[in-house]
Fold this protein.
Amino acid sequence: MVLASFLVGLLAVLAGTGYAGVRGFALWRRAKGTGGAITAELALFEERAVRTERLLAEAERSSKALLEAQERLRVSLARLQVLTASLESAQRKTAWLRAFVPSR
């Protein structure tokens, strides 16, 4: 009876060890595959981060170019206003001459 109990216990220990070994091996394979997937996703994330950084730099350069163009436009508009005011002033000062110019 003691020997039978010992053999049943030994069989239970061996079965448990075998089951744990199979499950451990499956876990090891899954972890190995997961590591590869994580590495691939991290590489993809890094690639996207670099692309985003490049696009942000381009947007910043475009923004600076836009601000420079706006400043040039402001200067041009100010010059145009000065020239328009000067033309209107000249037209007002020479309006009396139109009476002597024959119209077509």
User: Anything to note?
Assistant: The chain has a mean pLDDT of 91. The two ends are 137 Å apart (CA to CA).
